[in-house]
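Journal club prep, notes for RB
We'll compare a predicted complex against what the paper describes. Inputs for the magnesium ion case:
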Amino acid sequence: MAGLVVLGLLTVVAGVLSGRSTINYVLARDAREAALSWAAEIDKRLGEQAFPSPRLLDKDLQVLDAAKLNADVASPSGAGASLPTNSTFNTDGFSLIEGLDRLTMGWALSHIYRTHNEFVSKLDGFAVLAPDGATLAVGGNLSPASLQTMLGESGGGAALAQSVNDNAVGTVAIPGDAHNRLAFVPMTDDGKVARVYAFAVDQTAAAALTNVALTVVTLTTSLLIVLGFSVPAAIASRRIRERWLAEDQIRYLAMHDSLTGLPNRLQLHQHLDRAVARGKRHGHLMAVFGLDLDRFKDVNDTLGHATGDALLAEVAARLKESTREVDLVGRLGGDEFAIVAEDLDAPEDAMRLARRICTALGEPYHVNGHEVTSSASIGIAIGPLDREPPDTLLKHADLALYRAKEDGRNTYRFFEPAMDAALQKRRRLENDLRNALRKNQLYLDYQPQFDLENGRLTGYEALVRWWHPSEGEIPPTTFLPIAEETGLIVPLGEWILKTACAYATTWPLDTTLVVNLSPAQFKTQDVLGLVRRVLNETGLEAHRLELEITEGILLQNTESVMETLTRLDQLGVSIAMDDFGTGYSSLSYLTRFPVKKIKIDRSFIDTLGTSPQTSAIVSSIVGLGQSLNVTITAEGVETEGQAAMLKKWGCDQVQGFYYGEPAADVPDSDKTPTDRSLVA
Ligand code: C2E
Ligand code: MG
Ligand code: MG
């Protein structure tokens, strides 16, 4: 708005300035035209000798001393020396003077006023001058002295000379008088300037009138300009305001998580930078928490995303309640949250906060008509760190969180430097694993499986191995999770299946090949297509291939998993459930999925004979298999005693070091294991 006012004022000032010069131009022009018109009138009357009678002589009228004038005209050295040597002057000077006398009287008559009043300029005084400026007669408000002053300075003389020279009307402003000017009209006789009429023009009225007109015009223009600007300006300012609002909204969205309204990752990072700076400045401790809900995916998978979202919103609210106003609680995405707590007295403060949060998040939730229980794992990093960037605290908190998860969830762990080392190592492995396949560092071992009743070799389970050039043998339980997380499991899985199938074609026809499949493969790969292709390429018969899956697969889209498993079954490939008893052990899938075989996990076999509970579990699983008509395999059989118990309960198959360790080569058929090991 202030801008508009300034604009308006500027317009007025500009209008006034340009108006001034316009006024001057208009007034000068009016004076010129008035003077011309008056001169013409006077000349006409001079010619007609139509002069008023002396009695009408104005008291102001002065006719200069006729004798002096005559003398001047006569004497070549006098003031009138430069008068044109016109015969009229020389011979009939007096009559001319008399004529002038009369002429000036004529001026005194209001005749001109009355008959030539079409001009706003008014006649204020009149003089007859010789071309050189000598004053011959004056009237009205012009006196010989004032006239001479005007001619002497302020350019009056120059204007007169110019006027005579150009034989054109000339005007000059009268100094100290804003509204009066002098106009010279040269009059010629026989083509020569014989005399000059000087008119004092009063333009007070003209100036006032022009001023009024100009003011009206200037104000109207200014008003129009201001209006012209202000309407679009008002519209523009509204648009700008709307845009600001929209930008505010965008800024909010950019900095907040839309589901919970908590600060998002971006804001968290910015806040963390500042918090670290504050901590360093004031020498205060701070803590960064990395927090992750335990098994949140299960909630999403079983109760749906809407319930999952509602749970997250409730978790966010509880986190806000458990922390102080100054602590920042942010959502990093999914079920991951982070907290920045400043101004701690000791790390124990962070520990107490972590406990409080674990308790708060462990309380049951009522969301979307469901009662849900949940818990959280927390990793804590204490700062500020001297040398490292603020983000390092988040990384440390994440590592500690990882440890909390490993240590059984629903707990908290503080970051320790060793965790960092473990992470570095993992990163290295990840990198090396990418090259391992290409560098032929991977190979397969095969472990035999036997029919417990008759001691017959039924098949071999392919187990992948990695020989790392500097680390040596790296167990699959270490590198497979990395392969799963990085997606390397896809090329790796393909390589395993191809290599094993190709090898199995060299085995006796009744020997089965058992290959493990990772749940990650079902997620990212067309397993059915892969199996078909590999069987085709290698020529292995489908019924000789057995695929081991784990219960983890049930966490995925069961529809498509079921479809794949059913098609594999139709193809002739059999499916075995590996590590039975360690996962969900939901028995329902045994009826829904085409599972032909259950492998009791090694952990149960391990304690067979020492723990009455596991004996009970294993014997019931064996019984279950019999009643469901599913083959039961016990894996990890290491002792004769374990073998005897399994045989007694009627377990179908066995696999374990007691019968044969995994080895790179499958022995020739004539070298199958002795049946000493099969004796119960
Ligand atoms: P798994 O499929 O249950 O394989 C059996 C594991 O038990 C193998 O360990 C094997 O060496 C070990 N084992 C066999 N008999 C005994 C025994 O008597 N005593 C003991 N202590 N251990 C025994 P490994 O080879 O380290 O494999 C571990 C896990 O890695 C496997 O468990 C499987 O889940 C996974 N894995 C191994 N190879 C592959 C593979 O080629 N593909 C996929 N997807 N997973 C694989
Ligand atoms: Mg297995
Ligand atoms: Mg197993």
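Talking point for the session: The longest strand covers residues 457-468.
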